[in-house]
Amino acid sequence: MGSKIRKIVVFDTTLRDGEQSPGASMNIKEKMEVARQLARLGVDVMEAGFPVSSPGDFEAVKAVADMNLGPVVAGLARAKEIDIKTAGKAVGKKGRIHTFIATSPIHMEKKLRMAPPDVIKAAVNAVKYARTFTKDVEFSCEDAGRTDWGFMVEIVAAVIEAGAKTINIPDTVGYCTPWEFAEQIRYLKENCPNIDKAIISVHCHNDLGMSVANSLAAIRAGAGQVECTINGLGERAGNASLEEIVMNLKVRRDFYQADTNIKTKEIFKTSRLVSQVTGIRVQPNKAIVGMNAFAHEAGIHQDGVIKERATYEIMTSESVGWKGESMVMGKHSGRNAFNKRMEALGYKLDKQELERAFDRFKRLCDKKKVVYDEDLAAIVDDEIFSGNMLWELDYQNTNSGTETIPTATVRLKKGKEMFLDSGTGDGPVDAAFKAIERIVGQPFNLNEYALEAVTGGKDALGSVRVRVTSGGKTAVGRGASTDVITASIKAYLSAINNILLQKEIKAKKNGV
């Protein structure tokens, strides 16, 4: 096949749609770190958030845009002036405004309560208004998978005429099959009179496990941009997985006649960074980045791989940056080696952050004989990315047993002041949380609590992730320590601090 290889634009929405995955919220520092790694990975566009959704999301999108990392930074906006104006301020003139409106009959009737002509008018006005902020405007037909194809052509032609440069056809609810989705893209190409003035994009969800297959079918049918997330993160069952799409195009370049600008050796590192930052682990049998993706246990497979890797491996682990094992560091490792290892894991720390992380690393070395990559990632997440700490743990002591009422004494630091109190509970962790609430002076609801060992061994770091709510605000907190109670307290404080800061920002905005 001698036809020209097409370059597919990779639109990564890990920082927006991926973050909407339950429990995957990121603070500004975390978003900035993931954005840096996405730039190293080579994505063409990164959707950094939904600026109008909260002051924090606006600041995060603006912070990512201000870094000028290379990829185009996009902000999501409904077809409303306030959304578009806020997104425009966040991404700037070099950025992209990604505006959308629902186009399926059920969405127009039940959600929007708008007639089709009014939906077209709103879409056109949104694109025209977005063009006053930036020339790079993308328009999405929300729930395109269930949209009438004739109406789709009508609204797409209208928004292209209004100035949209990218047209996104999302399978918002993961309803489509690869065959019909490909036909929908072909229909759009053949029947929209001005489609040659825009790039067709696709954004597929995984409710029926078809997101990657649908995306690849659309690329075969002529789509020029694919929207995806690292590890397939996203609402409900998630989005199309970036690594799976990219490696399908790379390995089967002969079939798809398409490729991307992604630096595939950065894939594994990016996957692990996103997993660590969000607290959502990658399943072992996950394609491309799962720990078992290149493992061979069956004897016949092992024999074949020993004789010739290509017998059972269609790509190498090295091609996606997987080295097969963690780097081991210990108490004799110096600051320079530590910094180099952090950079290799995808973290770029400033001088102050490096000192804090290195100090924590040395303290961990006194408790553990060997420190693995997973431990280092947990240290950075706990020490650097935990956000602004209004309240910090200074001291904790717990007492529990089969015949003892669990009690906890906790001393917290706020600025230069120290606060000490005690509590009882169903166990030492619950007792510690009660003591914290007494100090802070308000109750919080613990909705989720997850504890796991970062690595194997009796001296493994314990990583705790919690979801906490209070007064309509929700926050996720994470903490790590060789002592699981300390890790739990750190995670709880991280979430509480996040909620208190949200309330503080809202109070300032309202002039309270």
Query: What structural class is derived from the secondary structure elements?
Result: alpha/beta
Give the strand content: 15-25%
End-to-end distance, in Å?
67 Å
* β-strand number: 16
Spatially, the strands of the biggest sheet line up as 2-3-4-5-6-7-8-9
Quote the average pLDDT: 88
Largest sheet: 8 strands, parallel, barrel
Radius of gyration: 25 Å
Spans of at least 5 consecutive residues whose pLDDT stays below 50 are 296-306
The helix content, as a percent range, equals 40-55%
Globally, the shape reads: globular
Number of helices: 17
Notes on the protein architecture:
There is one protein chain. With 512 residues, the protein is α/β, with parallel strands linked by helices. It is 41% helix and 21% strand. The chain is built from 17 helices and 16 strands. The protein has helices at 28-41, 55-66, 81-91, 105-112, 116-130, 149-162, 178-191, 211-221, 242-251, 253-256, 267-278, 299-307, 335-344, 351-365, 373-383, 428-440, 484-509, and strands spanning 6-7, 9-12, 45-49, 72-78, 96-102, 136-142, 166-171, 199-204, 225-228, 258-259, 392-401, 404-414, 417-424, 445-453, 462-470, 473-481. The protein has an 8-stranded parallel beta barrel, surrounded by 7 helices. Strands 11-12-13 form a 3-stranded antiparallel sheet. Strands 14-15-16 form a 3-stranded antiparallel sheet. β15 (462-470) and β16 (473-481) form a beta hairpin. The chain starts with 5 loop residues before the first strand and ends with a helix.
